[in-house]
Write a structure and sequence with these properties.
Layout (H helix, E strand, L loop, with lengths): L1 H16 L8 E2 L16 H16 L3 H10 L10 H33 L3 H35 L10 H39 L6 E2 L2 E2 L3 E3 L3 E10 L2 E2 L4 E6 L2 E7 L5 E7 L7 E8 L12 E2 L3 E6 L3 E6 L3 E2 L4 E10 L9 E6 L2 E7 L5 E7 L7 E9 L8 E9 L5 E5 L3 E3 L2 E11 L2 E2 L4 E6 L2 E6 L5 E8 L6 E11 L8 E10 L1 H25 L9 H10 L12 H20 L9 H8 L7 H16 L6 H19 L4
Parallel strand pairs: 4-12, 14-20, 22-29
Antiparallel strand pairs: 1-29, 2-5, 3-5, 5-6, 5-9, 7-8, 7-10, 10-11, 10-12, 13-15, 15-18, 16-17, 16-19, 19-20, 21-23, 23-24, 23-27, 25-26, 25-28, 28-29
Helix pairs in contact: 2-3, 2-6, 3-4, 4-5, 4-6, 5-6, 7-8, 7-9, 9-11, 9-12, 10-11, 11-12
Length: 648
């Protein structure tokens, strides 16, 4: 007790001369396990159900939604040892969806072309579709093999047959079978379309020929061109037929042939700022011409589109904050340097509209843009674009915008020493580079107690935490101070300081328990040896080690507990005597075990088991039973018999 009083007095003295503690905030990040000790596991059920959903969408030809689900997997955590095989599985699934989607479009296009008697183009599509169908078959086979391999790696086959994991595995196998059926469906469709094309060729339909001539090969964007030509079949003019004119393979208008099979049309070009466009003439049989004539397409005619390029020099900051404005400006000119006044300028953030402005007569613009408070921190793309106008093309420029939340600083003033029960007064202030944080929520937590307070206009806060008695004895505890700012541009932060807490009530109870333990051990030792022999040094060593434990106050060392400790002490005496290794005051029971273990000559396991029993008796709320005390005594006798030859 004298030592304890001395220790407590020193603690109080040191705490009294320590200055009040201050702390600077740190960013709050989501809690994670320590990577060094955390085990990496893949959730088998999640994997199977997620990919079952993806493959089901593919099997029903819902390729767009399947691709969305595949894209979501980029954000899923994957253990390091599974990354390669999972990424490969993801790529196979994505490639299968893309292949089947292209196959579906090709077969649909080929069917349309055959209906229009455009057999040559249809054959090209069918040839490409055959290649894709073979590729899809290979991909599906690879996915089936990879499904089994991954399932084995993540423990699916080790799960009980009736478990939800095994049910999920059966579902994904069922969906893979549906994909096989979908491939067979595409194969049948491919064969059917080829048969239709073959039947049309056997009918011996008359070939046709359509020509195309343009009045110019150069035209200003948005201008017009004249197109003319003839439609014939085996040298015979075909009057009153419709000829479709295609601009970059898209139909723009239809012209009707005259009595001599000729046609004439004026094509109005769109304001499409590309340097080259292609025109074609297309004839497809309709009405009475079906079953008589084949379709035909003219050779392509190219035209050069003339317009003025625009130049844009945009200026924007590299860093922005959610909910705060930034200034975006710049200048727009033509390719010869002429200022482009009166032009609309749009600003997009990651493709979404953000703001707009207009250039002045010097082609200059400047505007203040406020980011959404909900914008995520990280790297974003700010696109500044000048709208096209007349013969002037548009222009755009991308800027990397790093959106960051400002990290505030917390200055805390709190006592570094506390005797329970007490009211602990904590005060401080929260500031950032923009000034004090007003109406921020401050949360304080210490030893199971908590308090909340709002910062004032000048960013200051003060609060008194009520600290009642608890199960603590004495020691350092962390005072956690978290700040949740009211403004979206500030990041949540947390600061931690250490407070030494003393609980006199529990210390008194624990001291009584320790004294009782010492008395029990001393009494047992006195009975075990003649009084003329000096008690070995081991007695205070064990007592001091036990006094250093964190035993809960309600534990009492008597009865069965005393027998377990007596057995351990007996074994420890034997080991000290026979090995020359002593338990030092600073040692724990486990440290003594590891130091003595190499010299235990066949009883290392027995002493390890006895150490575990003693530790549980000393350090846990578990109360040993009679069987455990008998086991402890048996282990002690074994150690004494092997090491001491039966001597005490």
């Amino acid at each position: 007790m004298n030592r304890f009083k001395t220790f407590l007095a020193v603690v109080i003295l040191v705490a009294a001369i320590l200055p009040q503690t201050q702390a600077i905030a740190e960013l709050i990040y989501p809690p994670h396990e320590d990577p060094a000790v955390a085990s990496e596991e893949m959730d088998a059920y999640f994997f199977l159900t997620h990919y079952t959903s993806i493959l089901t969408l593919i099997s029903t030809k819902d390729y767009a939604d399947a691709n969305k689900l595949i894209e979501q997997l980029r954000f899923v955590y994957i253990p390091e040892d599974l990354k390669y095989i999972i990424h490969r599985y993801n790529n196979l699934t994505s490639e299968l969806a893309e292949t089947l989607e292209r196959l579906d479009k090709l077969l649909s296009s080929a069917s349309t072309l055959i209906y229009q008697y455009r057999l040559q183009e249809a054959h090209e599509k069918l040839s490409e579709a055959s290649i894709l169908l073979g590729k899809a078959e290979i991909l599906l086979g690879d996915i089936e093999e990879a499904t089994v391999a991954i399932s084995n790696r993540i423990g699916v086959f080790a799960a009980p047959a009736e478990s939800k994991v095994r049910e999920a595995y059966e579902r994904i196998q069922s969906v893979l079978q549906k994909l096989r059926e979908l491939e067979n469906e595409y194969l049948k469709l491919l064969k059917s379309i080829k048969e239709t094309a073959s039947n049309i060729e056997e009918e011996g339909l008359k070939p046709t020929e359509v020509t195309l001539t343009l009045n110019t090969t150069k035209v200003t964007v948005g201008g017009s061109i004249e197109a003319s030509g003839n439609l014939k079949s085996n040298g015979e003019d075909l009057p009153n037929r419709s000829v479709t004119l295609l601009l970059d393979r898209e139909p723009v208008l239809a012209a009707t042939t005259g009595l001599d099979g000729s046609y004439h049309a004026v094509i109005k070009l769109p304001y499409k700022y590309v340097h080259t466009m292609t025109v074609k003439a297309l004839y497809t049989p309709v009405g009475d011409d079906r079953g008589v004539y084949l379709a035909s397409e003219s050779p392509p005619a190219s035209i050069s589109i003339m317009f003025y390029e625009s130049r844009l020099e945009a200026v924007a900051p590299d860093v922005a904050h959610p909910g705060l404005p930034i200034t975006v400006g710049g200048k727009a000119t033509s390719e010869d340097g002429t200022p482009l006044g009166g032009r609309q300028v749009k600003m997009l953030l990651d493709g979404a509209f953000l703001a707009e402005a207009e250039t002045n007569v010097q082609g200059v613009f400047e505007t203040e843009v406020t980011l959404s408070p909900m914008v995520q921190a990280g790297q974003h793309t700010l696109t500044v674009m000048v709208e096209p106008h007349g013969v002037y093309a548009g222009a755009s420029q991308d800027k990397i915008l790093n959106v960051l939340k400002i990290t505030p600083e917390i200055n805390i003033r709190a006592p570094s020493f506390l005797i329970l029960p007490a009211g602990m007064h904590v005060e401080g202030e929260v500031r950032s580079s923009l000034g004090p944080l007003e109406e921020a929520t401050v949360t304080l937590e210490l030893a199971g107690s908590s308090a909340f307070v709002k910062t004032s206009q000048d960013g200051r806060f003060n609060v008194t935490m009520e600290m009642p008695l608890n199960l603590l004895l004495a020691g350092f505890q962390e005072l956690k101070v978290g700040v949740e700012p009211a403004e979206p541009w500030h990041a949540p932060v947390q600061a931690r300081i250490r407070v030494f807490i003393v609980n006199p009530a529990n210390i008194g109870v624990a001291s009584a328990a320790f004294i009782s333990l010492g008395a029990v051990i001393y009494t047992k030792l006195a009975k075990a040896k003649p009084r003329r022999k000096q008690v070995p040094e081991v007695t205070p060593t064990l007592r001091e080690a036990m006094f250093a434990s964190t035993l809960k106050p309600e534990v009492r060392f008597e009865g069965v507990m005393g027998k377990v400790l007596e057995a351990y002490f007996k074994a420890m005496r034997t080991i000290e005597t026979r090995t020359g290794i002593s338990m030092k005051p600073h040692m724990t029971l486990r440290e003594f075990l590891w130091e003595a273990k190499p010299k235990l000559n066949g009883v290392a396991d027995a002493f390890a088991d006895l150490t575990v029993l003693a530790e549980r008796t000393l350090y846990s709320p578990h109360v040993p039973g009679v069987s455990e005390s008998l086991k402890a005594e048996e282990l002690a006798l074994t150690i004494d018999r092997v090491l001491g030859g039966g001597a005490a």
